[in-house]
Amino acid sequence: MRRLIKSPWAARVALLLTLLVALATTVAKAEAAFIPSEESLSQAMAGRDAATVQRVLQNKMVQTRLQELGYSTQEIQDRLAQLSDADRHALATQLDNLAPAGDGVGLVIGVLIIILLIILILKLLDKRVVV
Known about the structure:
Blueprint: H1 2-5, H2 8-25, H3 38-57, H4 60-68, H5 73-82, H6 85-97, H7 105-124
Helix pairs in contact: 3-6
C-alpha cells in the first residue's frame, strides 16, 4: 500500500480525481424571470413590424417607385392601417429578407476567398508571381 501511495503517478491521479469531483459537484446557477404574456409580446412584435415597414417606405427608391405606380402617400398609409397583425408581420418579414440594392458583402468576401486560395496554391507550388 505504501509503495502504491509513493508511486509517481499517484499524486496525478489524486489531483485528477479531486478536479473531477469538484466539477461534478458544481451546481449550475439557475435564474428565472417573468415572461411576457402573448398579448404584450404580440404588441411588441406589431410595433417592430410597423417600424420595419415605415423604414422601408421612407426609402427614396421605394417612394419613387410607388409614385410611378400611382399610389399616393395617404393611400399607402390607409392600406397599411387595414392590414391585420399577421399580414403586417408577413410583410415585415419579407421586407427584412429583401435587400433592394444588395449589400455587396458576399461579393467582397467571395473575391477575398478566391484571392487567398490563389495565393495559397501558388505558395504550395513554390511559384512566384512578379508584377
